[in-house]
Design goal:
Elements (H helix, E strand, L loop, with lengths): L3 H7 L2 E4 L5 E8 L5 E8 L5 E9 L5 E8 L4 E4 L16
Antiparallel strand pairs: 1-2, 2-3, 3-4, 4-5, 5-6
Length: 93
């Protein structure tokens, strides 16, 4: 289990939660586009409750979520307004 000081070094941003826990996060530029945000939620004793990766496109729209802890759910792709563009329309190309 990480200490509060270790979490603060690894995650430059955090919010204190009403129950004494914290929500830590950090952002990294994406490899090909957009950005990635890692979110770690801990209890008051710094025990990890959840860890999630969010993927954003170039416009800052959340397009994918990957919960890694407590259960690895794999990548969950989110529907976007662009997904329901008909394949034969000019916007689909």
């Amino acid at each position: 289990m990480a200490t509060r000081e270790q979490n603060e070094r690894a995650f430059p941003n955090w919010d204190d939660l009403p129950d004494g826990g914290r929500r830590y996060w950090r952002e990294r530029p994406g490899g090909d586009f957009g950005k990635c945000r890692y979110i770690k939620i801990v209890a008051a004793d710094e025990a990890t409750l959840s860890f999630v990766q969010e993927i954003y496109d170039d416009e800052g729209v959340l397009i994918e979520v990957h919960q890694k802890y407590p259960i690895d759910t794999g990548h969950q792709y989110l529907a976007s307004e662009r997904d329901d563009t008909p394949d034969d329309s000019p916007e689909a190309e």
